[in-house]
Amino acid sequence: MGIVIDEELCEGCGKCVPKCTHHALRMVGPLAVVNNKYCTDCGICIDYCPSDAMDLTENVVGDTHESEDLVPDESGVKRVVINADNPCIERAEEGCDDCHSCVKTCRAREKKLLDPDFQICLGCGQCIHTCEGKVLHPRNSLDKVLEALQSGRTCIAYTAPGTRVALGDDFGEKPGTNVEGRLVSALRAMGFQYVLDVNFAADVTIIEEANELIRRINGEGTLPMFTSCCPAWISYAEYFYPDLLDNISTCKSPIGMEGALIDSYFTKFKQLDSKDVFTVALTPCTAKKGEILRPEITGTDAVLTIQELSSYIKTYMDFEKLQPQEFDSFMGTGSGAGAIFGNTGGVCEAALRTAYHTLTGQELDAEVCEPLHGMNDFKEITLKAGDVEIHAAVVNEMSSALPILDSVRNGTCQYQFIEIMNCRGGCIGGGGQPLLREEDEFYVKKNRIETLYKKDQNSACRTSHGNPEVQKLYKDYLGEPGSPLAESLLHTGYNDRSSSVKKQPIL
Q: CA dihedral defined by 255, 260, 263, 266, rounded to 10 degrees?
């Protein structure tokens, strides 16, 4: 038995993909493809196909209906390229049994990454989660962090939204449990003098991004505008879509903004010498380790993933006995909009809330953005804000982004605002999160997303523009959104790296 897909009938909507809990379905270009190696013949995907392109048949033999883009081919590629100088991922010298799982994972995401003529690593770390030999790991930054903690410098940690709903997975908590208080406590126990919340910087990102979107809609810039929070997506665009770099928001990611604001705003008001400060971002994302090396991203000295922090806690602490603590009050308060940055669709929704308020003076009903919820590879919404109509789309996983990228390239794109995340589910599915069994992945990610939305719903402030700490930042320091100081600290540019794509050794 097996699923067959009629390519002539397939509309490329992607609705079937998130319904497959065994990850047998992927979008490759404009079409859905099935990997019958993982398909269980449950037929759920058939029920969600609006074009009747899918059917269950007995005529499938072996993997004949598995896309050749999902498996190692005659090119001889056995492993993804993880060079010794890769800042995001490292491979153990021994233990690899050439199972090809890393290749399958990478190729399913976007075939260009494993072209026989070259191999490019975006640093996303998804190969870590499918490595059967467990020889792939986030690049170790823990030793550098521990050295700094023992150096006498002022050490500051700041945590990304998706970290608090994943750390507990490694300590017997129900998947998706919010362990924010114990996370803060663990970081303080390590020796950090200050523990801040990147949700604060996520709110600042939204203030800048929403205003940038409005300016572009009013004719001051290129449309559509892509989000800029995901470093793997940024790298992909620089390598393969350099002609679309003007479409990417100039806003730094929340990590980029947090580091810049600590280096300037925080140290100024805390009367600290920035040269004596060591800053550490705790993220779900391995690609952030590469992002902080970009010359325009300042103020962050190291990135730790949840996997790294978890290993330290298991060695030196009893996580269950940690007493919950709160973030520091200065740059430690984020809104509900900042919290949902951690999941797919969250950045888009947060930006639309603030853009709507800017355009109308009113708050957007949260229910309006429900079409952006869930783990579908593609989601869309049309928002009427006064005289302005905003068409927005959300995609996660690079393979799902290709049709919309190509539509922008050929001038047929109907959207003005597009969120792109490299990892399925958004940051909650980052390469630095706790390892999951493949059969549990959908359930765990779903729980993490639900918890972030609950945090949003229960927040006293659910909008970035309503965050009192962010309002104080602009009043006391930045001035207006897009001010010269804001542009200098919070905005960036991108580089055409297509010419740097060189032939790599076939592994």
A: -80
Q: With H, G, I as helix, E, B as strand and everything else as coil, classify residue 3.
A: strand
What pLDDT was estimated at residue 60?
Answer: 45
Q: At what angle do helices 198-217 and 254-261 cross, to 10 degrees?
A: 110
Q: How many residues does the chain have?
A: 507
Architecture of domain 2-70: 2-Layer Sandwich (3.30)
Residue 22: its pLDDT value, please? 56
Report the 10 Å Cβ neighbour count for 173.
17
Nearest of 370, 372, 416 to residue 390 by alpha carbon: 416
The encoded tokens of residue 474 equal: 């602009």
* Tokens 């007995």 belong to residue: 58
Q: Which residue has 């479409």 as its token pair?
A: 247
- Is-contact 345 419, C-beta < 8 A? yes
What phi and psi, each to the nearest 5 degrees, are found at residue 149? -65, -25
Low-confidence residues in the chain, pLDDT < 50: 60-74, 506
Listed by start position, the domains of the chain span 2-70, 89-139, 144-490
Residues marked as catalytic = 209, 212, 229, 249, 288, 291, 296, 427
Cis-peptide, bond into residue 116, ω within 30° of zero: no
Signed CA dihedral, 106, 112, 118, 121: sign only:
negative
Other residues' Cβ atoms within 10 Å of the Cβ of residue 321: 8
Write down the pTM of the prediction.
Answer: 0.86
Domain 144-490: give its CATH architecture.
Answer: 3-Layer(aba) Sandwich (3.40)
Neighbouring-strand partners of residue 32: 27
